[in-house]
Amino acid sequence: MKYLDEFRDPATAKKLVSAIASVTTQPWNIMEVCGGQTHSIIKYGIDQLLPEGINLIHGPGCPVCVTPLEYIDKALAIAQLQGVIFCSFGDMLRIPGSQCDLLGLKAQGADIRIVYSPLDALTLAQQNTNKQIVFFSVGFETTAPATALVAYQARQLQLNNISLLVCHVRVPPVIEALLDSPDNQVQGFLGAGHVCSIMGYREYLPLAEQFRSPIVITGFEPVDILLGLYRCIRQLEEGRFQVENAYSRVVKEQGNLPAQQLMESVFDITDRNWRGLGLIERGGLSLKDEYSNWNAELRFSVSDIYTQEPSECHSGEVLKGLIKPAQCPEFGGRCTPERPLGATMVSSEGACAAYYRYRRYDHV
Amino acid sequence: MPLIIATVAMIMSDLNLNCAVPLNYERIVMAHGGGGRLMQQLLENSIHPVFNNPILNQKHDSAVFNMNGAKCAFTTDSYVIKPLFFPGGDIGKLAVCGTLNDLAMSGAKPLYLSCSLIIEEGYPIAELECILKSMQKTAELAGVLIVTGDTKVVENGKGDGVFINTAGIGLIESNIDVNPANIQVGDCILINSDLARHGIAVMLEREGLNFEHNIESDCADLSGIVQDLIHAGLEIHCLRDLTRGGLASGLIELASTRRCHIEIDEDAIPMNDEVKSACEILGFDPLYIANEGAFVIFVPEKQVDYALTILHQHPLGRQAMQIGRVKSTHPLGLVTVQTVMGISRVVELLSGEQLPRIC
After folding, report:
1. Where are the domains of chain A?
2. What's the CA gap between A292 and A118, in Å, rounded?
């Protein structure tokens, strides 16, 4: 299949693996930011092809995993109300809140639906005028433009039976927080291709400069990831720290300008709690005041729900790269995809779930 | 709006999020029917212990037993699908093929089927007749008779149009023993056709996703192609159709029943390009997607070429390939896949249903 098979081609991958081996002279810690990349790395076994000493740290780029517990609890509080049709992306339905998950609530009769696009929520609102439609919008800059479009259109059409529970997060501030952290281990980054297809990569230039850390934007197929790693390791070995674009078939320097403009017109940048990582300054997006009529937190008075993360989940250490999932004392024992202690065990893009699904036999 | 705010206020006043459903699910969730680990738990913890008997414990697609000296296969399945008509089939065709295939997987020649209908009040009789005719046509082509049945009507809103249960009975020739217990180390695993067409065709239709595509369900009666294999005199150790839970779940179940290590080759698995694209876009792994006309065959290595020759001669076996082998015994049962990168990784049961990803 064009645009896919060539990026999964074993011969090309093999050449890149040798190229990586030939430029590597010492150990390096490299973080892939995006959960999609983590999934690919573990699924194809890319980490096992690398020279000894190249340590891949699985970053906080799984939108489901970093959505804070308090937002899951807000979602559950709204979804159990009569007259509400609550919708979200499929992955979100299995994330455990403090006491249950959305699938469990659905089993008790709550009207909870999976949508494939945020715009489906708009259609639901038009079709169900006697119901309140609530869309739980999570994700990085990749999904935020579609949410912005829903808010924009709802306002244009003055649709008053739809609202958004917004918990979007931004990548650059979390990279900054990780690099700035005293226990930081990361020396270079693979940047998330989909996020950069929207935002471009100018935001990363000052980060690479300030923290002397190369950032290579790349995609999700094995060849993309290997190329990204090669270019990142080459920079580290040569003592360079630049932003490079290894995903130019998708990412342009300026990104998608209409999408950015739409986001700017609908969202403010805000401080946001990330599950496992805590408060990240400027790490999230929230609806602007002129969209408060479509803000589900206000409409359903759930702004005051604050939930403490359970201390037994070590996902914060996993997301910072301090431990591998299998090094967590609860991994595969008290924490499994059926009974997850934290979100990294739930989403298919979560590092713990990826290890559980593809690597468990290494540990049993 | 005011009504909703009032409800919110009531709940917020004693906000303890008092959901009765803990994460280990005291109530049935959809994933209990998804073919993954939750369904396995339901079978193992709630269903098998109650009915426990040696025939049930064969854990085969059909129950196999002797009756008056004849070796019989007996099976049943209920069919619940939305939409009732989908590209490549309808619930009627599915209800006949599914039960025929379960019989075929035990090496039986299907003979008689039952048909129980649960119909929702208000359902158009003309559509029901289309479904019934489709059942009859599929049965005729397979050379079986639908000889008994039942009809119930439930109130509007209490069903999804039509639910169908079929049971089937067939005869197994006395010298034939197709059974997971016969899987041997060294056996080669063949597949008759490409993967994941049924699940993707139905989902694209159900969700109204605006893909331009020509994907049709692979829904088909496999009893003919299985009889061809049997009559060719092949030494068939085991057969398994790859319905709910797909190839991955089917093989994992066999590996764990037989306590063996099965390895499959990712590159060898036949896939239709359009199905592959749809899976990529939605973030679905085709190994776990349902099929209704795909099955695997376990044969000794020396018979692979002959088996492939027989398969290729049948319209449902044109794409037949060897996709893996039984490598060794294993204390728990293990399935691994050799990735295109030459690395081996484990194939696990999914917890429940595959859910489309965020981005």
Report:
1. 1-325, 326-362
2. 18
Task: Decide if domain A1-325 falls under CATH 3.30.750.210.
Answer: no
Q: Is the pTM of this model over 0.95?
A: no
Domain locations in chain B as residue ranges: 20-57, 68-172, 180-346
The amino acid at B111: L
| Interface residue of A71, A73, A94 to substitute, partner B, most B CBs within 10 Å | A94
Class of domain B180-346: alpha beta
ipTM of the complex: 0.77
Mutate to test the interface with A, among B18, B348, B359 (most CBs of A within 10 A): B359
Q: What is the pLDDT along chain A (364 residues), one digit of tens a residue?
A: 667 788 889 999 999 999 999 999 999 999 998 988 998 998 899 999 999 999 999 888 888 888 988 999 999 999 999 999 999 988 788 888 888 889 889 989 999 999 988 999 999 999 999 999 999 999 999 999 999 999 999 999 999 999 999 999 999 999 999 999 998 989 999 999 999 999 999 999 999 999 999 999 999 999 999 999 999 999 999 999 999 999 999 999 999 999 999 999 999 999 999 988 889 999 999 999 999 999 999 999 998 888 877 778 888 888 888 888 989 999 988 888 877 887 788 777 788 988 888 876 554 3
- Give B-chain residues touching A103 at CB under 8 angstroms: 29-31, 352
CATH of domain B68-172: 3.30.1330.10
